Amino acid sequence: MTKPCLAVGSLGGTITMTSGADGAGVTPSLTVADLLAAVPALAGSTELQTRTLASAPGASLTFGDLFTALDWARSAVDAGAAGAVLVQGTDTMEETSYLLDLHWDREQPLVLTGAMRSPRQAGADGPANILAASAVATAPSSRGLGVLVTINDEVHAAARIRKADSTAMDAFTSVPFGPLGRIIEGNVTYANRPRRWAPLPRPAGAHVPRVALLESSLGDDGTLLRLVCEAGYDGVVLSAFGAGHVPAAVADVVSEAIENGPVLLASRTGKGSVLSHTYGFAGSEEDLLARGVMPAGWLDGRKARILLWSLLATGCPLSRIREVVAARGGHPGGPDQN
What family does the entry list (predicted)? Predict the structure, then answer.
């Protein structure tokens, strides 16, 4: 039987980290070849194409790094790979996976994975996660699902996944709808499938948008939001209290911010959608929407920022931004949820 072709690339992260001396903190050092040496079964079941794209912690990845990885994955599947696996740090995986998903325009799956424990720790999870991600990337049932994240034997949609624990092996969750599937004995079983949207074009211009993500907090008087506007940011995402609320003192500053660029409203809770017409006090969702804020629906603040950045980077007019955010966020009363 012909073995499937699989592309595996690495950007770095905990899964690649070792230390030069006992007691020293770990840093990225392993190549993709080093990682695959710990998964010997993979070489026997697939034809491998490999590339070490970067060697950075997840916190230091840039938009440029991600678009380089996107181009690599596109080229790999266009050359015959059944799918691509991209290894990276887990710190930013909920954001990077969504950015890639917005722009992934192939039927073959692009699967992200990483590790919560470095190779030197007891019970390191990197090899198992690579093996599971490879099974997902080569499974025919994964086609058409866009960018996926496979970790701890679960498969998550890029639009839903969230890192919810700093160190636990089951750090990732997809609340409230749950993961898409699980890997059992090397086979992937899907329980639900995400809505797929037409991919956004890759940004081609030299302009790199600046989009601020501001979280509401007790006693916020709007000073930070005003400073962001004065600094010339292209857009703002408000990660607001509860169902989409900010202090009354911030509401008037929001009106000023909208004059400078789009302002998206998300919930800081990490679970659930912002509302549209339940509360009517100053700083409520009803008040903010009347001022021109765009509701992010089910998207949390981090996803909403990535979406707004991508739309601005591709030159979308304000009317189109409003339409795409409403659709992909699945705001109550709007188009389908993501």
Answer: Belongs to the asparaginase 1 family.
Mark residue 11 as left, alpha or beta (left: phi above 0; alpha: psi -120 to 50; beta: remaining): alpha
Sheet order of strands, 294-295 included: 211-215, 235-240, 263-267, 294-295
Report whether CATH 3.40.50.300 matches the domain 5-190: no
Tokens of 314: 């591709």
Backbone angles phi, psi at 142, to 5 degrees: -85, -10
pTM: 0.96
The mean per-residue pLDDT over the stretch 102-118 comes to 98
Q: In Å, what is the CA distance from 50 to each residue of 23, 83, 104, 163, 194?
A: 32, 12, 19, 27, 29
Structural domain boundaries in the chain: 5-190, 211-329
Cα separation, 178 vs 161, in Å, equals 9
Q: Please say whether the dihedral angle defined by the alpha carbons of residues 143, 171, 298 and 226, taken in this order, is positive or negative.
A: negative
Residue range 279-320, pLDDT digits in tens: 999 999 999 999 999 999 999 999 999 999 999 999 999 999
Given a contact cutoff of 8 angstroms between Cβ atoms, the answer to whether 131 and 87 are in contact is: no
3-state SS assignment for residue 294:
strand
Pick the CATH number of 211-329 from 3.40.50.40, 2.60.40.1930, 2.60.40.650, 3.10.450.50: 3.40.50.40
**Cis preceding linkage at 57, omega within 30:** no
| Maximum pairwise Cα distance, the chain | 67
Beta bridge partners of 265: 238, 295
Fold match between 5-190 and 211-329?
A: yes
